[in-house]
Amino acid sequence: MQRFTAPYSSLPEETRGRVHPEEGLDFRSAFARDRDRIIHSQAFRRLKHKTQVFVYHEGDHYRTRLTHTIEVAQVARSIARALGLDEDLTEALALGHDLGHTPFGHAGERELDKLMKPWGGFDHNAQSLRILTKLEKRYARFDGLNLTWETLEGLVKHNGPLVNAEGDPVGRYREHGLPEAIVEYAAGHDLELASYASAEAQVAAISDDIAYNAHDIDDGLRAGLFGLIDLGDVPLAGEALAQVLKLYPNLEHDRIVHETVRRVMSSMVNDIITQCNKNNAENNFRNVAGVRRLGRPFVAFSTAMDARNRALQSFLNERMYRHDRVEEIMARARRVVHDLFTAYMNDPKLLPPGWQDAQPRQVCDFIAGMTDRYALDQHKRLFDLDPLFR
C-alpha cells in the first residue's frame, strides 16, 4: 500500500545537504543514512548505561537512556506515519535527541553545568551537536557524522527557535545566552536559529514528552514511589486506570499497569494527530517552509490535552523526581561528577592518553561521555570508595 506523503513533509531528495559532500550514495535516502550513522555511533551505544531516572544498579527493568530513546523513536515513527511525514528523518531525530546527556541524568548535567560556569557552562543539546559534528571520530575525511542540514537543524531546534528575529536568545537561553558550541557551528553552517524546525523534529520532541510520562508512571510504580491508588485523581492516568479496572476487575497488578500506560500513550498520540490535522486545515501548508514560518509549534496537543499533560507532569515531578529516595541518590551522583572533574583538572595525567591537555572543555567532554558504570569505576579507582552506596 502506498503511503500518504503530506505536502509539508521534509523530502530527502530536497535536502540542503551535508557540510562535506559525499558521492556513491546507496539505496538509502539521505535521512535514512543519518539514522543509521546515529545508531552505529559510540555515543548511541553508551546510552545503554546512562541514567534515565534510576541508576543502573537499582534494577534491570527500569528505563535507561537507551531504552527511553528507543521508546521515543517508536512513538515518533508512529505519529510521523499517520501524518505523512518522513519517517527516517523523524526516527533519526528521536534516536539522536539524548546523545549529549551526561551520566546520572539531569543531576549529572546540573553539576557539570555548575562546574563549567567559568567556561560557558554545559548544555546537553549543545553537547549533542558537538558529538555529531566533532567528537565522533569514525570517518577518514571528517570529524563527526556529517549529517544532513535537516537532521542537525532538527536536533538543535526540536524544542523551538533559539533566538528571536533580532538574534537575541529566547527560552532557556534568554538569561545566559546560547552555548558556544551552537554559536560556533551556526556561524559556519546556518541552522536558521530564529525559525521553528520541521514537523519531523517537532514530532520527535513531543514524542519525548509522551514517552517520559508513560514510562515514568511504569517505573515509579515499579519502584514503589507511589501506588495505583495515587493515580486515581491524576488526569490521563486516573482516567486510563478507571477504564482498565472497569473492563478487567480481576486483572493482576502488572497487567493493570501496562494496560493503563498504553491507554495514556494512545490518548496523547491520537490527540496530537487530530490537532495536527486541524492545524493543517487552518493553515493549508504547501511545503515544510510553511511549518517553519508558522510562528508557533505545528505539532502540539489540543488545549484540553495540554492541560491534562501538565497536571500529569506535575504529579510525577512531585511524587517521583523529588522523592527523597531519588534526590538522595542523585545528590551522591553529583558528588561523583564533581570529584572526577576536580581530580582531572588538578592532575591531567589521570586522564587517558589523548585527553591529557586538560582544557576544561575537554575534561567536560570526557566526563559527559561517561556511562554511569564507567564514572563509578573511575571514582572508585581514584578515591577508593563508592559514593552511591556508602
From TrEMBL:
Q: Pfam families from the entry?
A: HD, HD_assoc
List, alphabetically, the CDD domains matched: HDc
- Tree of life domain: Bacteria
Listed InterPro entries: dGTPase, dGTPase-like, dNTPase_2, HD/PDEase_dom, HD_domain, PHydrolase_assoc_dom
Indicate the segments forming the HD domain, all copies: 65-213
Keyword annotations: Hydrolase
Among Gene3D superfamilies, the record links this protein to: Hypothetical protein af1432
Task: Give any single GO term for biological process.
Answer: dGTP catabolic process
Molecular-function GO term, any one: dGTPase activity
SMART domains per the UniProt record, alphabetical: HDc
Query: What residue spans carry the region label Disordered?
Result: 1-20
The text of the family note is: Belongs to the dGTPase family. Type 2 subfamily.
Task: Give the matching PANTHER family.
Answer: DEOXYGUANOSINETRIPHOSPHATE TRIPHOSPHOHYDROLASE-LIKE PROTEIN, DEOXYNUCLEOSIDE TRIPHOSPHATE TRIPHOSPHOHYDROLASE
Q: What is this protein called?
A: Deoxyguanosinetriphosphate triphosphohydrolase-like protein
Q: Which species is listed as the source?
A: Aestuariivirga litoralis
